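Thread amino acids onto this structure.
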């Protein structure tokens, strides 16, 4: 994904600076999303209280695999979220608002199965052996999401906790679509396709550790 290299390097630099600042702050929590570890995806976060009710969280979500279970599932997502706790910061119920930016090479949910390829006249394409051409499709591009979230923060002891959460957002994407059998484009757009949808974009079970 050459078009993302400069973009990702800038995001990484910002994340490193933010991480350094946050780790030096008292009551900061570092988190790992246990729900995605079995899928070999890394989702980590840092949450810092702003006052007794509000906090801010920076989050990174990485799936580095160009092929996962024979499906394209490579993406790099950065999220910044503000949270309001009804009881006390980092305790019990909360709601939040977040923004995310994602670089992806994936198969969207409605492109996970193989399908017949049709020519410009609407007829099925035939392979050299006379069989009908059937293949999957994948998409590469960028997405911007703005959404709302909610969850519950359990406190196990002074250091450890659990953060269960979910979020839904409005996502705007630009992407190019490709056939999997020859990596040529299947869409008619000259440059980028555009799409917008409201979908669940985040969630899981975070294991939390408070720094002192």
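Threaded sequence (212 positions):
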């Amino acid at each position: 994904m050459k078009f993302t290299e400069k973009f990702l390097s800038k995001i990484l630099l910002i994340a490193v600076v933010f991480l350094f600042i946050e780790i030096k702050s008292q009551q900061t929590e570092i988190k790992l999303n246990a729900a995605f570890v079995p899928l070999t995806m890394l989702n980590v976060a840092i949450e810092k209280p702003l006052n007794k009710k509000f906090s801010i969280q920076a989050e990174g979500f990485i799936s580095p695999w160009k092929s996962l279970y024979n499906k394209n599932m490579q993406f790099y997502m950065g999220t910044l979220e503000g949270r309001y706790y009804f009881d006390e910061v980092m305790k019990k119920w909360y709601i939040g608002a977040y923004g995310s930016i994602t670089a992806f090479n994936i198969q969207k949910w409605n492109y996970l199965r193989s399908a017949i390829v049709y020519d410009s006249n609407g007829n099925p394409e035939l392979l050299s052996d006379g069989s009908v051409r059937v293949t999957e499709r994948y998409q590469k591009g960028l997405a911007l999401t703005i959404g709302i979230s909610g969850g519950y923060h359990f406190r196990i002891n002074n250091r450890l906790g659990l953060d269960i959460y979910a979020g839904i957002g409005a996502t705007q994407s630009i992407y190019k679509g490709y056939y999997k059998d020859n990596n040529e484009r299947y869409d008619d757009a000259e440059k980028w396709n555009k799409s917008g949808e409201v979908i669940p974009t985040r969630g899981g079970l975070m294991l939390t550790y408070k720094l002192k």
